[in-house]
Amino acid sequence: MKGLDAARAYWTEFGEPMLREQFPDLLPLLAAGLTGAGSECLGFDDDISRDHDFEPGFCLFLPNEDTLSRRDAFLLERAYTKLPRSFMGLARGLTTPVGGPRRGVLRTEEYYNEKIGSQDGVLTVDQWLRLPEQALLEAVNGDIFFDGYGQVTRVRAGLSAYPEDVRRKRLAGCLLLMAQSGQYNFSRCLSHGETGAAQLSAVQFAQNAMRAAFLLNGRYMPYYKWSLRAMRALPRLSLLAELVELLITTGTDGDMAREKQDVMESMAADVIDELHAQSLTRAVCGDLEKHAYSVNDGIQDAFVRNLHILYAV
Q1: DSSP 3-state assignment of 143?
Q2: 312 within some domain
Q3: How many domains does the chain have?
Q4: What are 256-278's pLDDT values in tens digits?
Q5: Residue 269, Cβ neighbours under 10 Å: how many?
Q6: CA–CA separation, 199 vs 241, rounded Å?
Q7: Is the distance from CB of 76 to CB of 105 less than 8 angstroms?
Q8: What is the CA radius of gyration of the chain?
Q9: Can you name the residues that pair with 34 across neighbouring β-strands?
Q10: How far apart (Å, rounded) are the C-alpha atoms in residues 169 and 299?
Q11: Predicted pLDDT of residue 101
């Protein structure tokens, strides 16, 4: 059973009954679920995942002290620690100090302030432009099993996707870096005999192609070690994942260098097709740089549009 399913089962069997029996008056102020860091919050956990930061339990979210007192929070935390320490082959107490609290009683505002720098989930334009995708994903991934107060659900809804101007700004930057690294510098590095620099160019292209694919799907890209796996499941451009893997796992000698250049051009063409399908560009060519500036030109907010095109990447 996946960690998310185990967390829901643990909540249903132990968490919810405990709260209904011991804290019925507080239940309308609480939310419970599993979200944040950890492969289980993405559904990517397996047997290997259980060697650290993996235990039965759930997140129990509390509103601020003006709504729910420090004493009530203490009583809830004490009751949570008394829940069964083993469940479905998992044991409590495996969370490492470095990982920080991933389960148990959490103040909602403190949790989101730690994740995204905002207690209520409301972000400035600059925060939207600068926050890492994985931080935003950790704020909305997993699942909420119960939300009597509604605060967590509201925050998650507000953070579920980039504002369109922000998506375009980030996308424009990725497209420009794809153009510079794959359509221009890869071959130039090879001409200079700099095979290592050529490989770095291919990796740069691959990384930004991945980011562009997630943006074109309206999704946040996860932590790098899960990005390829998540990319394979995207509704659009998922086939690019195998080409990304080819680019970053092969060398730059002879025929392989020519193949990699062809692969990057093919990937660029697929991305451009998707840009046109979403009416994000007016450029009609195979040059990703021109499409980058066309995407940027479509940004409605003049302040965001006039920021450096690479500001958000």
Answers
A1: strand
A2: no
A3: 2
A4: 999 999 999 999 999 999 999 99
A5: 12
A6: 17
A7: yes
A8: 23
A9: 143
A10: 7
A11: 61
Give the Cα separation of 238 and 55 in Å (integer): 32
Residue range 36-45, pLDDT digits in tens: 988 888 988 7
Residue 188: count other Cβ atoms within 10 Å of its Cβ. Answer: 12
pLDDT at 262: 97
Euclidean distance between CA atoms 45 and 306, whole angstroms: 42
CATH of the domain at 192: 1.20.120
> Phi and psi of 40, rounded to 5°?
-65, -25
- Both tokens of 14, joined, read 């132990």
284 and 178 housed in the same domain: yes
Give the residue from 220, 233, 221 showing the smallest Cα distance to 162. 220
What are the residues facing 90 on neighbouring strands? 87
Would you list the DSSP string of 89-119?
A: TEES----GGG---SEEEEHHHHHHHHHS-S
State the amino acid at position 191 in one-letter form.
S
**Residue that is written with structure tokens 């949790």 in the block:** 111
Listed residues 126, 142, 158: the one ending a domain: 158
Token pair of 126 as six digits: 């600059």
Task: Output the pLDDT for position 50.
Answer: 60
The pTM of the full predicted model, rounded to 2 decimals, is 0.91
**What is the extent of the structural domain holding 260?**
164-306
The C-alpha atoms of residue 279 and residue 167 are separated, in whole angstroms, by 14
Coil vs helix vs strand at 134:
helix
